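Reviewers asked in the last cycle whether our approach scales beyond single polypeptides. To address this, we selected a multi-component target totalling 534 residues and predicted its structure end to end. The input consisted of the following lines:
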Amino acid sequence: MSDAIPTIAEAARLIAAKELSPVELTRACLARVHALDGELHAFLHLTEERALAEARAAERAIMAGGPSGPLHGIPIGLKDIVDTKGIPTTCGSKFLQDNIPDTDAACAGRLAAAGTVLMGKLTTHEFADGGPSFDLPAPPARNPWNTVHFTAGSSSGTGAGVAAGLILGGIGTDTGGSIRGPAALCGIAGIKPTYGLVSRAGVAPAAYSLDHIGPMAWTAEDCALMLQALAGHDPHDPASAARPIPNYAAQLGSGIRGLKIGVIHHFHEVDHKVSDGTQRGIDAALATFRGLGAELREVQLSPLQDWAACGSLISITERSAAYEEWSRTGLGDFSERMRSRLMLGAFVSGVDYVQAVRRRRELRAELQQAMAALDVVLTAAQPSEAAKIDAVPKWDVFDKPGFTMPFNVAGYPAISICAGFGAGGLPVAIQLVGKPFQEPTLFRVADAFEKATPFRSQRPTLVSARVAA
Amino acid sequence: MPSEINDAALDYLLARAGLSLTEAQKAELKAVYAGIAAMAERVRQPRGRMAEPAHAYGFAEEDLL
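The resulting structure, written as structure tokens, was:
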């Protein structure tokens, strides 16, 4: 096969036409892992033999009867807070270095049933919070666009792995932006689906009522293909939605003429002013959408700080409850960053928590009303290009509210897609938000943007340089 | 909620949470207390006692089977 890294959709078409072998594709990904991951640290645990065995099995099945679907024979990875039967699942923590689950998480099982090839477990901030940390059993993942820089997190390995073509897609989790942040800084696509659409069963909690599971891949179309396999009711997740699952790729290619896009200018221009490069990316994206025939409208919501306060208090409290036992008996065994987050739990009273949850109802109603006459809304995904990995502030949550948390608070689906390149050639991104369970519209808009812009044709230079060497 | 916390109050909250911190960790925590206090103020609105939290729920048909 050529050195070009295919998208999932491209690989699926080639596999279906018997022009690409899953074994060949898996070997190409493994070659990139061996060439690059010593520098990127995207993998915590590589399952090379299993991947090759699964690829051979996929190849036999496809040769005998054709692919079972677009994910058949596609190499993927799972964030290491996703339980995998018989495979270490450490959550990036000292506490779970010897943990080998005896069952698969629901999302792992669904991707396996769709015929994917599991390449391994991917780097995460400890229990999906706190990083980048240099005092964990494994080092933090590095940004393939410049390895001196951060990937964002906590789905850091998935972001780095997809961007570098070590895998074609992967699972991330998102409690306040942990899918959309790494997607933005690594220049890929990542969607936090509607709360309850993808089962959380078997995935380590960060904050129960804010946790979402979702796909990360090179394109929005690939995310749609992965979400098709992931979505569905699961009685083992008490938040799981029992709803019919649409065809997530059905609207792709139908254009966006006449769709109404709301822009929350004050989030990224006033409440938390983004970098010049990010602002240029957003401005150019708005021009692109206008050129594609969308109608742009101004949206005014409560200040970003209100959403951040609400989400942070809920997140801090639920995380402290989830990890209370270890906090009391082994606080020193957490990474310094995770420990600091857990310490904050002492400051949030029960009344504070309930006031935050009451605020949550108001904020969600506000977004619902604002989106009534809109199809999607748009704001920044990250405040700037990726910072250097050793210069990531620990407490910026207090004075620099994130752009992603509002949609965890609301539970609305939100996708981050690449909107160009800013300072140092590092990616910048936009975030698009849909109405609950309207992921098909979100994919339609994101896909139209990706196809109207040149950003999906450029991979990190490190990839071609190292693989060719 | 005051924007500063004294040592006695911090020790009480940590004891209630069951957390054992070093003096350096306590100092760091005290330094960010104002941030949490500001968040706790932000989520308080003049909403009256009848405003429900987001987590209030009703029973669906399948819950009653």
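The CA atoms of residues 10 and 29 of chain B lie 9 Å apart. We regard this as preliminary and will revisit it once experimental data from Aim 1 are available.
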